Amino acid sequence: MASGENPEEADMVELKSDALVFTFPEVHKEAELHIEFQRTLRIPDDGKRWPLPPGLGPFPLRHVDDFAERIPSAWAKHGGVMLPMYQSEALWINFSSPHGYPFVVKIATGKVNAVTGEDWSDGLHRDPQDYMVVPDQPWLDGYCVGKGVIRQFVAMPLGSGYTAEEQISGAAEHGGIQVVVYPIKADVWKRMRRPVGRIQADYSMQFALLESPAASLDMGLAPGGEMSQEIYDDSHKFEDWETRQRSRCFVHLANALVWHAITGAHPPTPPPTADTYTRAGLPWFEYYDADRKALEGADTLKDLKSVAEMGKQKGDVPLPENESVQPQNVKVLKAKRKGEEVREGTF
Fold first, then answer.
1. Residue 324 and residue 307: Cα distance in Å, rounded?
2. 8 Å CB contact between 231 and 150
3. I need a labelling partner for 317 at 20 to 30 A (CA). Which of 23, 31, 63, 114 fits?
């Protein structure tokens, strides 16, 4: 699968079972990273700090090239994949390195870096750190607005003024998500190699709810409710990373109506509300890694208005179902170097 505009990046990322699989065979045979975009419920945007919501299974991914005659020209230009997203749901990104091989991952939404809030720039930067280290970082749920605090990735129509891209740049130009991956150097991996477990998310919940999707053609990510999550500092030497090798992929977001018009397929049923989920006694999660140092968060992202705050300013009600609840069943996940932890909901 072509991974972007640079021809040297082709064939380094594939789409397998609704996951992006990045491989770097020229660096090391074990340099393999899986990235899933997990469906989840939208936490209340109520000023409280929430635990981590569950994984409700991966979003379906499709090659945009397979629907070249039906997609926007900007999608065709960038290539990559697309996924359907209801305005009533949220997204988190699940990282999995099957062999424990280390990578750095840069994430942008609408060309705004999700860690620093700065405009997208090529290459890696250490001060401030504009990337995450995997497998140390098992997942990313939103924008890093403070030390141990993120604002959830939620979907809003591009052009509505709610997205992080529009708030920071003033323009509704790109939308979607951009992912760039770099591996660690093979000789560094050889020195540090040891068994490393992985934290994964599974899906075993089904709800039949109805939703009236937004009418916008393209979607962007906006800051939702506050959540407890740390983005970890890079404990490696900066020169350990193989910066001459990278792979990139664009992930385009479509609302349910657009997805059906393009693919002919229906998207998954919308997720439950936080209230429905909590009243069912289903688990929320907290994750700790005592061995890692958390980043402080970005001032630019800290100044973003959440969807609820922006709606109040506009006199809109972007999502009526925003009732605050009190999670009772909170499971604590601790980082492990061996074995697995699962972040899932069961119903």
1. 15
2. yes
3. 114
Encoded tokens for 77: 């230009």
Handedness of CA 18, 22, 28, 31 (dihedral sign): negative
* Residue at 17: amino acid letter: S
Contacts of 131 (CB under 8 A, 6+ apart): 104, 105, 106, 115, 124, 125, 182, 234
Which amino acid belongs to residue 87?
Q
Cα-only R_g, the chain: 19
Q: Nearest to residue 41, comparing CAs of 315, 341, 331, 285?
A: 285
pTM: 0.87
pLDDT in tens, 290-336: 889 999 998 899 999 988 899 888 888 777 677 888 888 999 988 76
Give the model confidence (pLDDT) of 11-34 as tens digits.
589 999 999 999 999 999 999 999
Residue among 109, 113, 150 nearest 129 (CA):
113
